[in-house]
Design goal:
CATH superfamily of the largest domain: Fumarylacetoacetase-like, C-terminal domain
Order of helices and strands: EEEHEEEHEEEEEEEHEEEHEEE
CATH class of the largest domain: Alpha Beta
CATH topology of the largest domain: Fumarylacetoacetate hydrolase, domain 2
Length: 278
């Protein structure tokens, strides 16, 4: 099953994908629906109304608009660790984003105007279904509602000003997510998926989830010992090699460029970088 959040006349509505059209639900986004049903994904299809929107007429927002938290893994692919000249620590490298950083799967991304090192990162993102607190790795996937795509657009110059990643990761409306959340069965819990990123049609990243250092179940279990993961929270699993900062010479995003980030079995995000307004 696939779920999306659509922009409609009076805001946003979570919707169920019916191949040719979306059937709307009473909820404003996927987070609200998951919270209401305690993460019971099987019940989400049953809340669709008769009100529908043809796919060609639909405008998609990010599936999750109001997550309680967004936790991302840095340096979770060995080839990316190497290209960034880092060393592993034996533990997941975690940083957070805020809901205000998220934007839709096909939205323009406004160049910050202050960063000279705006970079891309294609990532598989986990959408939490049931609350997870101190869960065992063996049962961690039971707390997953599904999967989506996240492009962790990063301002490398801000990120590298200190040892903490945060300031390079939280510029507003720079992190596209979507286009859908797909349920676990559609992608075999992300065990062997291709991840690609294209810049103006040129392939920049091409990796597989089998390259992840810390797997999905291990990561959820680890985070849940630190903080409670709630329905609708995102856990983004890191990026393979091929980012702009790792190239010689580096390549960074400029107004007019188009970035396409794809994950096998889920779809693609496509975003144009635009100049900031005066």
């Amino acid at each position: 099953m696939r779920f999306a959040t659509l922009r409609v006349e009076n805001g946003t509505r979570m919707a169920v994908d019916y191949e040719t059209h979306y059937r709307l639900t009473p909820f404003s986004d996927l987070v609200a629906a998951l919270r209401s049903f305690g993460g019971d994904v099987a019940s989400l299809a049953d809340i669709a109304t008769e009100e529908s929107v043809a796919k060609e007429d639909a405008t998609l927002a990010q599936p999750v608009i109001t997550p309680d938290k967004i936790i991302c893994l840095g340096l979770n692919f060995s080839d990316h660790v190497a290209e960034m000249a880092r060393t592993g620590t034996g533990f997941p490298t975690l940083f957070a984003k805020f809901p205000s950083t998220l934007t839709g799967p096909y939205d323009d991304i406004v160049h910050t105007g202050v960063s000279e090192a705006m970079d891309w990162e294609v990532e598989l993102a986990v959408v939490i279904g049931k609350p997870a607190r101190s869960v065992a790795e063996s049962s961690a996937l039971d707390h997953v509602a599904g999967y989506t795509i996240l492009n962790d657009v990063s301002m490398r110059d801000y990120q590298n000003r200190t040892s903490q990643f945060l300031q390079g990761k939280i510029f507003e409306a720079t992190t596209p997510v979507g286009p859908h959340m797909v349920t676990r069965d559609e992608v075999d819990d992300g065990r062997d998926l291709s991840l690609t990123m294209e810049l103006d049609g040129e392939l920049m990243q091409n990796g597989k989830t089998t390259q992840m250092i810390f797997g999905i179940a291990e990561t959820i279990s680890y985070i849940s010992r630190i903080t409670t993961l709630l329905p609708g929270d995102l856990v983004s699993m890191g990026t393979p090699s091929g980012v702009g900062a790792g190239r010689k010479p580096p390549i960074f995003l400029k107004p007019g460029m188009v970035i396409k980030t794809s994950v096998e079995g889920i779809g693609s995000l496509e975003n144009r970088i635009v100049a900031p307004t005066a």
